[in-house]
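Shape is hard to put into words, and the shape of a protein is harder than most. The fold becomes a row of whole numbers, each drawn from a learned catalogue of backbone shapes. The outcome of that step, for a single protein, is printed below.
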Amino acid sequence: MSSFNHAVIEEFRANAGQVGGPFEGSELILLTTTGARSGKPHTVPLGCARGDGELLVVASAAGADRHPAWYHNLLALPLVQVETGAEEYEAVAVPAEGARRDALFARIVRAEPGYGEYQARTRRVIPVVALQHTHEVPSQEGGIAGKLLDVHGWLRAQLALVRELAREEPSGVGAALLGLQLRQHCLAFCHSLEFHHRSEDAGLFPYLEQQHPHMREFFRRIGAEHRVIARLQEELVRALDAPGAGFSERVERMSRELEAHLDGEEAQLLPVLRALGA
């Protein structure tokens, strides 16, 4: 991180999003992505715009011929953290496409002509990225049981959106690459699902099995289900860059398998987790 960006980030966080100097009076956010190669968090201050209820950022890189690093990061892992000064939340980063991108960029340039100057400096099409709030609805339950329900609720909501988007995509072997909206939400869902299952297999389940040896067979079955779902997830991710006939069917199968898995897991685990009182 440059010393300039570091100073802006510190000032932003110390003053609830207010920054002086060349940014005084401008609306800034802090965007934290995960490094595509390093896997480490990467935070940058960015100007932003608002349109149709969405928060928008522009990958201008001051008109450079390469996309900024943060843009490459969010293509690899679309889940990002957004700080506005007033709130901090998780979002799915979705680059706008085609006519929608052009309309959004033109609107942004009318408000901030400097972006038009940046576009004139480079032959690349400068991306406009919508930061779509995941709108998590927390459960009414606390403790570990509540956290499990929160994660399951988020996974169900993201998968429902992926199913809806997949049904709108053209089908057939000759279909073009899947739209970025579908791609980004599908990647966000798959990354979150993988992390959730790894956390269960490595931490929660071994601990619960020690406390409840009679549930050993249940945890073996759930582990096998995790492996089946992981294979389906890998197929989905591979299909994102080589779509063809059957992509929507893959999503539907994932939905059936995951819903049955989450329902069964909740039925067995929630009573145990509630009894822990933590």
Notes: The mean pLDDT is 89. The chain has eight helices and seven strands. Residues 142 and 278 are 8 Å apart (CA to CA). The helical segments are 3-14, 69-76, 98-111, 114-121, 143-168, 180-211, 216-240, 247-276.
